[in-house]
Design a protein that fits this description.
single chain, 229 residues, mainly alpha
Length: 229
């Protein structure tokens, strides 16, 4: 446990310290922002470092092992309906709790978008549906290259019919949904899922889940834009 804490703390400091130092230097050389704004930045950077440390520690000690165990357990019941149910529930719940989705929702509302809660629901539903499709793909061994081509071709076709002002939010949603909370949980579940299936590879089947799932929010918001706007 001590080794994990030490390693996590070192990684967080290495990741956060450079950008913090760059902004501090810019403050005195270029920006000259008001003192209260600069002090709030320092306080926020400190809280971010501590928050990232505890978050990553929790991911490594709890979320990843639990996700792998759940993923390894569900195929052993031999029920396709169970796999679909778990994929939908986990995909929706994890995405709803993703901090990046909350940030995108708040910024969209501030920019004038109506009904911010609907935005979160559409993103989470799309992520859940495509994550479930990714699990079923592993089960049946469907080549990932074809599935990715089909999914993103659908997204590109829909982009021609979505209102222009809605298009950037839709494509940003895919990256936002694949955040620091979503990726570890869903990827760990997928790796556990792959581990108990015969003739399945961690590299060719365990990965690619997030790439497929990220198209869900994009397609969902594109369709929402076409239907609602």
């Amino acid at each position: 446990m001590y080794h994990t804490m030490k390693k996590t703390a070192l990684e967080v400091v290495q990741a956060m310290l450079p950008i913090t130092l760059v902004i501090v230097v810019l403050q005195f050389v270029v920006l000259d922002a008001p003192a209260d704004v600069f002090y709030r930045f320092l306080a926020g950077a400190g809280m971010t470092i501590f928050g990232a440390f505890f978050f990553l520690l929790g991911v490594r000690t709890g979320i990843l092992p639990m996700g792998r165990d759940i993923g390894a357990e569900i195929p052993q019941h031999g029920s396709l309906l169970l796999i679909i149910a778990v994929g939908l529930i986990f995909g929706f719940a994890v995405t709803t709790a993703e901090p990046g989705v909350m940030v995108l929702n708040n910024m969209a509302v501030e920019a004038g978008a109506d009904n911010g809660s609907a935005l979160v629901i559409v993103i989470s539903t799309g992520m859940a549906l495509l994550f479930t499709v990714a699990l079923v793909r592993i089960l049946f061994g469907f080549p990932i290259r074809y599935l990715l081509a089909i999914i993103y071709c659908i997204a590109l076709i829909l982009a021609f019919f979505t209102p222009p002002e809605f298009l950037p939010i839709a494509f940003d949603s895919g990256g936002v949904a694949a955040g620091s909370f979503t990726v570890p949980m869903l990827l760990a579940l997928g790796m556990g899922f792959t581990s108990v299936l015969a003739r399945r590879s961690y590299l060719s089947d365990g990965f690619g889940l997030i790439g497929i799932a990220c198209a869900g929010p994009i397609i969902g918001l594109l369709l929402w834009g076409i239907i609602v706007f």
